[in-house]
Design goal:
Layout (H helix, E strand, L loop, with lengths): L4 E5 L7 E5 L2 E2 L6 H13 L3 E3 L3 H5 L4 E4 L2 E4 L8 H17 L1 H18 L4 H7 L1 H8 L7 H9 L4 H9 L2
Parallel strand pairs: 4-6
Antiparallel strand pairs: 1-2, 2-3, 5-6
Helix pairs in contact: 3-4, 3-6, 4-5
Amino acid sequence: MDCLTELKTCSNCCGVKCSFSKGVPIHSFNTKFEHKLRHSMIERMQVRILYDHWFPKYIDVLGITLFPYILLAEKKSKIEYSLLRHEYVHIQQCRDLGFFYFYISYGLFYIYYCLYFRFDTNKAYHAVKYEIEAYATELDPFTPEQIKELEQLEVSRRLMKQIKRIK
């Protein structure tokens, strides 16, 4: 998946929202039934943001996505736009690729780069292709569908104004 990925209705196979890259639907399903089943399961899983959570603090990061949860180390009033956008990109990656594929491939990439960079975990983290995409798109605007989903979550008013202002 690259930075040119967009979310729109997949008219050729299933008629539900799915990711497209350069006009081609991104999915590897054998049948329309499998595609619709996956989309219906994922759409029912509402994203939840947990603020001031112990887990990101424990592993010394600002935020981590464990689909469908975004765990953030800071309080709601201190969260920055770029951090929320970065973690939301990982939510989209989970939705596009599927939960198991995303986390298994992420883990394998991370292990590979840890070995490649001789256990420099910071370099390994920044070399994972999912992180490269998340960092590349963290200043991009949210889509109207994403804004609608974020409005249902407990996002601070300051951050919500910033989300709607960036276009």
